[in-house]
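lol ok so funny story. i was supposed to be doing the assay writeup but got distracted and ended up predicting the structure for this chain instead. priorities right. anyway since i did it might as well share w the group, maybe its usefull for someone
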Amino acid sequence: RTVEQLPVDAAQVQAEKDRIYKYVQRDGDIGWKDIRTGMARVMQDYCSVTKSEKVFEKGLKWLDTLENNEFKHLYARNPHELVRCVESENLLLVDKAILHASLERKESNPWLSFERLDYPNIPEEKDYTYSLTHMEGDKWVTEFIPLRWYLQAPYADNYEDNYEKYSALDVEDDDF
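and the output, tada:
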C-alpha cells in the first residue's frame, strides 16, 4: 500500500513478448510434453533419494543440455501449447534452483527429508535453516537464514509487534 507504481518500460515489455512468442514463430519438432518428460526424468534421477554433490552437478549438466539443445526446437501450435511451453521454461528455472539449493546445503536434514550421502552430519534442531536461492545476473546465489528469522533483530521478538510495525495498516490496540 505504501509503494508507488512504476512506469511501464516498453523495451522490457517487448523483450518479454519476444521471449514468449518465439515458440509460435518457429517450426520445431519437440512438443511441451516431451520437454516436461525429459525434465521430470532428470529431477527423478538426479534429485531423488540418493543425493550427493556429483549427482547434483550431473543433474545441472543435463538441464543445461535440455536448455541449450531441446528447448531450441520447442514449438507451440495453439495458445494452450504456448502456455505450456512458457510454463516449461519457468519449470526449468525452478528445477535449476532446486538443484543449486540442494548442492549448497552441505548437511543432511531430517526435517526437510533431505539426506546427502557425502554430508551425513545432522545439525541440531536449533540450527535448522532455510536456504534462499536466487540469481544475481547469470550466477546462482544461496544464503541460509534461521527458521524464525522474523523474530530476530532487527525485528521484534513477538508476532504482534512485528505485525503492527510492518503491516502498513493503521492498527489500534483495541483491534486486537
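The first helix runs from residue 10 to 25. DSSP finds five helices and two strands in the chain.
back to the writeup now i swear
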